[in-house]
Amino acid sequence: MSFGFSLGDFLQVIQLANNIRTRFVDAPLQFKAISDEVKSLSNVLRDIEDVLPLRDLADIQEKELHEIAQGCRNALKDLENTLDKYQELDKSRKALSGRPRWIWKRLRWDQKDIDRMRNRISSHVLLLNTFFGQIVSQTTFAIRDGVDQLVERQDNQDQQVILDWLTPTNYGAQ
What is the pTM of this model? Predict the structure, then answer.
């Protein structure tokens, strides 16, 4: 069952996180904490992006990831809208890459608003890390089950060798 969520939707959230992360490059010191949270969010999104194509998610996992990604997208969009109020693109001064730089307006962004946005981003980092941990633990359990089957098969073969040595006669053919 599909919930209308695709890898493309997830990639859009990653792109949005990366765009916002780069807007914090020359941010004043008061934005360091939220900048670090956006970097963490960007990193965990990329980690999940690396693993996602290799896994077949159950429907409930797909739905859970969709809900988390939607929450991330909403939080990032709100942050982007806030940044639009406090930043402007300075086309006269170019960064080393040749692109215009974002400059911060002299207006003060209320610390409560920064903390609220930071907490929202932080909660999504936590949710995504938990989701990622579930995927990794499922893989670990699958590997453990495979190893257990291999050990059982090897034990059965060893037992058969001992039985063949003790009883060389095959009574099944009689």
Answer: 0.67
